[in-house]
Design a protein that fits this description.
Elements: H1 25-28, E1 41-42, E2 45-46, H2 50-58, H3 62-76, H4 86-99, H5 106-118, H6 121-128, H7 139-152, H8 156-160, H9 166-180
Antiparallel strand pairs: 1-2
Helix pairs in contact: 2-3, 2-4, 4-5, 4-7, 5-7, 5-9
Biased composition (Polar residues): 1-13
Protein name: AbaA
Organism: Streptomyces thermoviolaceus subsp. thermoviolaceus
């Protein structure tokens, strides 16, 4: 199984409109089609369904976006665990969505980033059960790469901290505290 990229992924996918008259998914997330999602895994198996979820989150419909984000969370950071290798590949898109004013669930996205940044469950398990580090699919590495991906884009926090949405500012402040610690 391939390791999830955190910078510039490859391949291509076609874009589709999110909603009539709304921004296109490719316009909101231009690099989404460059990630080899079908080569990556999430908690359901293949991560090929992740682009659809990210597009729905970008779409602007609050109900659909919230549901898509909950499903995405279960696929990449369930119960506070970084559950699979796709998590690190998703993080740059979460940062991008958090920046976009038309995204209706930005505070929840920032809280998901915080959960990923705080995730150390696999490292804790490996400290007690070091054989975990010898497995071909190493969840400790997934966790570390996901946290690195969150830190790599933390400059977005400066913008989020100046937003008028109090809930978003609180979530960004909490994430900033985690990243500073």
């Amino acid at each position: 199984m391939r390791t999830a990229p955190t910078e510039q992924p490859s391949t291509h996918r076609t874009g589709c409109a999110l909603s009539p008259g709304g921004p296109t998914a490719e316009g909101a997330l231009p690099a989404l089609g460059q990630v080899p999602w079908s080569d990556l895994r999430d908690s359901t198996g293949s991560a090929a369904g992740i682009p659809r979820l990210l597009r729905v989150v970008a779409g602007g419909d609050a109900g659909a976006a919230g549901e898509a984000l909950r499903e995405l969370r279960n696929r990449i950071c369930q119960y506070g665990f970084v559950v699979e290798q796709a998590t690190a590949a998703v993080v740059p898109f979460l940062w991008e969505l958090a920046r976009l004013p038309q995204v209706t669930c930005r505070p929840q996205i920032v809280r998901l980033l915080r959960s990923i940044a705080e995730a150390r469950q696999w490292e804790s398990v490996a400290a007690v059960y070091p054989k975990l580090l010898n497995h071909r699919e190493n969840p400790v590495v997934w966790e570390q790469r996901a946290r690195q991906a969150v830190r790599a884009r933390q400059d977005v926090l400066r913008m989020l901290l100046t937003e008028e949405d109090d809930e978003l500012v609180r979530a960004a402040t909490d994430l900033a505290a985690v990243l500073a610690g």
